[in-house]
């Protein structure tokens, strides 16, 4: 995504109209935005792979600036802050930014009027404003948190999230909410269990997937619809899904926390087996998650392959390394022998761990940060390949957001447990 400093025909015409009759021109254009929706996508002559995307913001009162942050823009720095700032149209309260964007991607963004422009501002997201002209929004209304609406854009040639569409005339599974008490958590942890349609307690045991960030997988990523559709289309066998709530202490739980991993593998899964007909064969069990959840799924698979034989890792946060790495000190000689200076921390752990019977599905967005996300994911993938692990790896056409993780949850399940003809 590149900011384009050349005025589009739309902006030129709008400025001319404002010069002639500002009030009329603004009112007409705001009505146009209400009907058309924000942003405005315009083709580029003789360039079929890209379009110009213009994002508008109208302020009811005068403001000094509008900052735009998108996960597919470079990380905000003092050097590139101009790329993140919208431009003001004449002396009006209408602001805009035009960007050159690939036609096959999806992206989200947020707007911050009157921003302090302090790069590491902790208060920034309190000043975030919803884009009232964009009809496409992801809504995050997590328990105990304030509601957030994130606008997003589907470019003209972006792929549909086929597996997430709710179908009326197919059998559907059910979700049951439980509370699990463990030695690790002070208070009970919410777990939602997805049971496939036709679940039978006395049938042969069911395979299962355990997902961290369970609330988001249900309410934002539409995991229930994906499972219903995959099972109805006979892409995967009927499975049980264990959707683990990690809202309260997410950064602690999902930072390769041995206590959390042990609680899931040694307490939670046996506790659920007492209530549901789950397979005890690791080949039929998947641990999965996105971002920090993908990092932790990889770590938990390595540490508890006696429970999980498959890892589904979506945009794993492999930039992570412990702040106090005692392991590094203890294993300095081994690391020098087995690791290169290019290895991320997770690759080091994989090399130091005995090879275990695990299959992997991994993915990363083409618009994610290259150094922090893409390169580290490829580093982990290449490390696994070099040690003989089975790894299916996929690039999806979005960024580090929730626009593709629901769809790629489905492709990951097909990869790991799908019927042979449907695998990647």
Automatic annotation (TrEMBL):
Superkingdom as given in the UniProt entry: Bacteria
Gene3D superfamilies in UniProt: alpha/beta hydrolase (3.40.50.1820), Immunoglobulins (2.60.40.10)
UniProt-listed Pfam families: Esterase
PANTHER family named in the record: ENTEROCHELIN ESTERASE-RELATED, IRON(III) ENTEROBACTIN ESTERASE
Protein name listed in UniProt: Enterochelin esterase family protein
Lineage of source species: Bacteria, Bacillati, Bacillota, Clostridia, Eubacteriales
């Amino acid at each position: 995504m590149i900011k384009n400093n050349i005025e589009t025909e739309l902006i030129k015409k709008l400025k001319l109209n404002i010069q002639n009759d500002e009030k009329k021109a603004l009112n007409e254009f705001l009505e146009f935005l209400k009907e058309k929706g924000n942003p405005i996508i315009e083709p580029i002559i003789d360039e079929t792979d890209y379009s110009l995307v213009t994002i508008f913001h109208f302020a009811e009162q005068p403001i000094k600036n509008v900052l735009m942050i998108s996960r597919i823009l470079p990380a905000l720095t003092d050097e590139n802050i101009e790329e993140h700032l919208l431009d003001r149209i004449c002396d009006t309260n209408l602001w805009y930014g035009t960007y050159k964007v690939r036609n096959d991607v999806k992206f989200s963004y947020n707007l911050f009027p009157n921003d302090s422009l302090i790069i590491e501002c902790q208060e920034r997201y309190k000043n975030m404003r919803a884009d009232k002209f964009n009809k496409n929004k992801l809504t995050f209304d997590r328990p105990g948190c304030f509601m957030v609406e994130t606008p997003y854009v589907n470019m003209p040639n972006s792929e549909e999230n086929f597996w997430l569409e709710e179908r009326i005339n197919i059998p559907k599974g059910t979700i049951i909410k439980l509370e699990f008490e463990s030695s690790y958590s002070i208070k009970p942890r919410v777990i939602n269990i997805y049971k496939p349609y036709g679940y039978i307690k006395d049938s042969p045991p069911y395979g299962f997937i355990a997902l961290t960030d369970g609330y988001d997988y249900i309410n934002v990523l539409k995991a229930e619809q994906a499972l219903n559709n995959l099972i109805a289309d006979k892409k995967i066998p009927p499975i049980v899904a264990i959707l683990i709530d990690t809202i309260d202490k997410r950064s602690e739980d999902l930072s390769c926390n041995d206590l959390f991993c042990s609680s899931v593998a040694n307490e939670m899964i046996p506790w659920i087996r007492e209530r549901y007909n789950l397979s005890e064969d690791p080949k039929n069990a998947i641990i999965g998650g996105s971002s920090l959840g993908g990092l932790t799924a990889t770590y938990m698979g390595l540490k508890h392959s006696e429970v999980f034989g498959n890892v589904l890792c979506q945009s794993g946060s492999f930039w992570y390394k412990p702040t106090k790495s005692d392991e590094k000190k203890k294993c300095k000689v081994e690391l020098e022998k087995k690791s290169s200076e290019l290895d991320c921390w997770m690759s080091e752990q994989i090399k130091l761990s005995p090879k275990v019977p695990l299959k992997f599905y991994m993915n990363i967005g083409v618009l994610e940060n290259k150094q922090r996300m893409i390169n580290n994911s490829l580093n982990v993938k290449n490390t696994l390949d070099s040690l003989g692990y089975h790894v299916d790896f996929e690039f999806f056409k979005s960024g580090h957001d929730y626009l593709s993780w629901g769809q790629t949850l489905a492709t990951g399940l097909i990869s790991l447990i799908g019927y042979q003809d449907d695998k990647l």
